[in-house]
Structures are given as C-alpha cells and as structure tokens.
C-alpha cells in the first residue's frame, strides 16, 4: 500500500546517480584543465633552443631543471589519464546504466499502475452492481406494495390488479438478478483484490527492490572508481616524483664550475708586471717582454694608435670584433674549440660524400651490367658533383687543420702556472711529465720542433702527444682514488670520475701531474691534487 513511497524513493535513487555522474564529469574537466595548465607551464619554461646549441644545457643545474620539467609533463599526462578513465568508466557507463534503470523503473511502475487501475475498475463495477441491486430491491418492494394495495381496493378493476401483480413480479425478478450479479461481482472483486495484494503487487515491489538494490550497488562501485583511477596512476606518479628527487640530487656545483671554465676559458697567458716607463729620460722606450703589450714570442710590439692589444688586458672593455672564418677574433682556447668543431663537421661531410661516391660507382656498375635498370651516363653529373665536393671538403679540412695546429700552438705557448697553486680543479701545468721527456721518441720529436724546450723542460706543456710517447705497459706501483671529477680534454691527459679507483703508474715528479691507468683501459695524466694515493 506504499506504492507512492516506492515511486518517490526510486526516483530519488536515479537522481542521485545522475548527480554523481555530473560530479564526476566536472571532476574530469578540472583534471583536464589542471593537466593543460601544467603542460602549458612546462612548455613556457622549457629551453627554446636545442640542447646542442644551448651552452647552458651543459650545466647540471639546467639539466636537472629540464628533467624536472619533463617529470612534471609526465605527471600532467597521468592527470589526463585519470580524467580519461573517469570519463569512460564512470560518466559514459553510468549514464548508459541510468538510462536502462529509468526504462526498467518505468516498466515496473506502468505494470503496477495497470494493476491498480484494474482493481479500481473492478471496485467501481462492484459499486455499480451494488447500487443497481439496491435500486432494484426498492423498486421491487414498491411494486409489491402497489399490487397489494390495488388488490384490497374494491374500486380497482381486475385488470389493474393483474397488471400491478405482474409489475411486482417483474421487479422482484430484476431484484433477484441484480442480487446474483452483485454477488458474482463481489466474488470477482475479492478474488482480484487478493491477487493484487498477495501476488501481483508484491511481485512488482520485489522487482522494484531488486532494481533499486542493483542501482545502489552499481553506484557504490562507481564511487570506488574514483579511488581506482587514482591508484592506477600512483606508481607512475611515484616514478615522476622519484625522478624529480634524482634530478635534484644530480646538481653538481663543482662540475658546473668546471663546465663554466671549459666553456669560457680564453687561453690567454697571465699578464706580466707593468714596467715603469721613465719619461724623464729623453730616450726611446720600449715595453719589456713581461709587459701586457708584449707578445708571447718575446718580440716587442710597437705601440701606437690602433696597435694596442686590448684583448690581453683583463680589465678593459671588450672591443667589438668581426667574426672571421678562422675564428681569430676569439680567445685562443675558444678558437681552438670552434676550429675543432668545424674540422669534425667537415670530416663528417667528407665521409658522407665519399660514401655517396662509392654508392654511385656501384650503381653505375650495375647499370653497365644490366642496361634495362638504368642509363649509366645519367649518373655522371652526380658523380662529378660528388668528386667536386670531395675535393672542396679536402681543401677545407686541410685549411682547418692548419688553423687548428696554429691555434693549439698558441694555446700551448700561453699556458702559465702549474697546478700546484690551486686547491680547486686547476688548469693543466705548463711543464710536461718527466717520463715524457725521457722517452726516445719524445727526444726525437722535441729536437725536430721549431722551438726546443729549455734544459729544465719548463716550456714543454702537458698537452704534447702522449698517446705515442708512453713506454710499454708496466705493473702499477700503487692504487689511488679520484676525489674530484676531471675531464681530460687535452692530449696526454685522461678523464676520471669522482670516486673512481685507478692504478698508479708513476708518481708526481714535482710538476703536479700523476700518471694513472683506468680499469676499463686507457692511461694518461691527471692532477695529483685530485687523487688520494696509496703506494704498494
């Protein structure tokens, strides 16, 4: 008898389902907007230039920042995944399920209303038959009274009496029929009413209960999808956060200092003392060899308008220089690096042209052996062009090699103090390791050089070609551990990482350099102040 209550409750349940779907939909919009803002933020702060063209990308601080941005971008992707999962598994599926529930509910309530209407219709028929029976009974009683009064009336004719009796008999018969109809209708209604309350409506209510419980269970599962969508991305988000932590730990201040030094060291020699010029003496004054204006070869430079070497003066403003093909406008160290890059680039282009020439030759041979595949003469222009490019690149390689040799000689001549003065990672010393000068091949090379070293060997730099000057491999005389990172970018030196175990091949001879051998192979000189040494 609580049909209306169930109707209101089931409607409330479907409305709650729709409200949850709407909530999840707005939640996905929030996630998508959040992810979009994160991606825009990452895009805003990512470097605009490629890493190979950006000198700042060499610093660990910049690399860590870029890695953090990438992790944030991956984190934004996980937020998008959460939004997508919620949209598909909650919004779309629950909307479809809500439509199915509404149709099922409508069907059950239509069935219930039909049953109610049928019962109400039977009750109306019962009432009608009851009123008809009541009316017929009154009419029959009235007809019987009329017939009895006429029968006792002496003035009434026999025909009137017979007519009244027939009418009373007819009314009595009609009342009897109405009574039977009313009894049958009452029996039918009681049967229908019992079926309605004991069978029909309980079945409909059971169906509504099952529907509502299934809806509630599905809604509860939809609630759980919120946490499931988050839990699915937790491992990836944890990796993103771990990547940010790794990026933070990867910042190496000492290494960044070394990178800055390597990027910007000029290669100029340290200026000597400024010599006193006595203007009280009427004589020609020439600057000393140690003055700032004296070239490294010892030849005095004439000072005059436009002849001052401003780039040798560390405190003067930098003059604007015009870029030249040999990069002579750059400091010696930077000039050497740029020339080395250009030389490597030309060699790559040259190798590419050589490979193309070989491929064209093979193709021409194939065409000559199998004419149907192509005309060999059609390849001649390309072969000629390739040969021309090869010749041009060879000339450029020779040109850059000459410039590079000149730049390296200038860098070597500008090397100043030894490593012994520095507590931080120093520049390479000006003197070569003693064993290099003791080697026979080294003596031959030094004797054939344009400027032979002095007796003390102080003018021979560490950057001489050690790869060919090392003696035959000997057994280590001890072990050592690198306490700093060192980038052995020059000839004769070798790179090592902080904490790396090395074999000690030769002790420091007083010039600040020690010869070591790496476990994975390779031997060279590293700064002694970078090592913790233990002799055998």
Automatic annotation (TrEMBL):
SUPFAM superfamilies: BAR/IMD domain-like (SSF103657), SH3-domain (SSF50044). It comes from the Eukaryota. One of its GO terms (biological process) is signal transduction. Keywords: Cell membrane, Coiled coil, Cytoplasm, Cytoskeleton, Endocytosis, Lipid-binding, Lysosome, Membrane, Phosphoprotein, SH3 domain. GO terms for molecular function: identical protein binding; lipid binding. It is found in: Cell membrane; Cytoplasm, Cell cortex; Cytoplasm, Cytoskeleton; Lysosome. Residues 1-256 form the F-BAR domain. Residues 475-536 form the SH3 domain. Its main location: membrane. Residues 281-294 have a biased composition (Polar residues). The keyword Calcium does not apply. Residues 116-167, 333-410 form a coiled coil. Residues 306-320 have a biased composition (Basic residues). GO terms for cellular component: cell cortex; cytoskeleton; lysosome; nucleoplasm; plasma membrane. Residues 329-406 form the REM-1 domain. It holds the Pfam family HR1_TOCA. The keyword Cell membrane applies. PANTHER family: CDC42-INTERACTING PROTEIN 4 (PTHR15735:SF17), FCH AND DOUBLE SH3 DOMAINS PROTEIN (PTHR15735). Belongs to the FNBP1 family. This is Thyroid hormone receptor interactor 10. It comes from Marmota marmota marmota.
């Amino acid at each position: 008898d609580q049909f209306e209550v169930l109707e209101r409750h089931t409607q409330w349940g479907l409305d709650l389902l729709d409200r949850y779907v709407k909530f999840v939909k707005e939640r996905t919009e929030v996630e998508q907007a959040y992810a979009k803002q994160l991606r825009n933020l990452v895009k805003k702060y990512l470097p605009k230039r490629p890493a190979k063209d950006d000198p700042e990308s060499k610093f660990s601080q910049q690399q860590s920042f870029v890695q953090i941005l990438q992790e944030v971008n991956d984190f934004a992707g996980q937020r998008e995944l959460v939004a997508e999962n919620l949209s598909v598994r909650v919004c779309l599926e629950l909307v479809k399920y809500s439509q199915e529930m509404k149709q099922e509910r409508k069907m059950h309530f239509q069935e219930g209303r039909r049953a109610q209407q049928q019962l109400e219709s039977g009750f109306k028929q019962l009432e009608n038959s009851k009123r008809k029976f009541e009316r017929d009974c009154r009419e029959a009683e009235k007809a019987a009274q009329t017939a009895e009064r006429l029968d006792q009336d002496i003035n009434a004719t026999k025909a009137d009496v017979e007519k009244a009796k027939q009418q009373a008999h007819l009314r009595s018969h009609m009342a009897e029929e109405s009574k039977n109809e009313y009894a049958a209708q009452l029996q039918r209604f009681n049967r229908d009413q019992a079926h309605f309350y004991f069978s029909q409506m309980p079945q409909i209510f059971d169906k509504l209960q099952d529907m509502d419980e299934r809806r509630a269970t599905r809604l509860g599962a939809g609630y759980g999808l919120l946490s499931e969508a988050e839990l699915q991305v937790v491992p990836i988000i944890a990796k993103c956060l771990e990547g940010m932590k790794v990026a933070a730990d990867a910042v190496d201040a000492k290494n960044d200092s070394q990178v800055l030094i390597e990027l910007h060291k000029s290669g100029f020699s340290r200026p000597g003392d400024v010599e006193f010029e006595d203007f009280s003496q009427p004589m020609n004054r020439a600057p000393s060899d140690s003055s700032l204006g004296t070239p490294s070869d010892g030849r005095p430079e004439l000072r005059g308008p436009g002849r001052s070497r401003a780039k040798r003066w560390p405190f003067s403003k930098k003059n604007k220089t015009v870029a030249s093909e040999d990069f002579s406008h750059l400091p010696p160290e930077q000039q050497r690096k740029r020339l080395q890059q250009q030389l490597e680039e030309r060699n790559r282009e040259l190798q590419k042209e050589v490979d193309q020439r070989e491929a064209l030759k093979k193709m021409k041979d194939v065409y000559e052996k199998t004419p149907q595949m192509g005309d060999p003469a059609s390849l001649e222009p390309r072969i000629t062009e390739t040969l021309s490019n090869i010749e041009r690149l060879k000339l450029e390689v020779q040109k850059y090699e000459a410039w590079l040799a000149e730049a390296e000689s200038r860098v070597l001549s500008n090397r100043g103090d030894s490593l012994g003065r520095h507590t931080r990672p120093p520049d390479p010393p000006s003197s070569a390791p003693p064993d290099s000068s003791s080697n026979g091949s080294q003596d031959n090379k030094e004797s054939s050089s344009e400027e032979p070293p002095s007796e003390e060997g102080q003018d021979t730099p560490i950057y001489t070609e050690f790869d060919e000057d090392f003696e035959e491999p000997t057994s280590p005389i001890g072990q050592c551990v690198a306490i700093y990172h060192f980038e052995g970018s020059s000839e004769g030196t070798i790179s090592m990482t902080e904490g790396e175990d090395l074999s000690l091949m030769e002790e420091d001879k007083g010039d600040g350099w020690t010869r070591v051998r790496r476990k994975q192979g390779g031997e060279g000189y590293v700064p002694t102040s970078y090592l913790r040494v233990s002799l055998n």
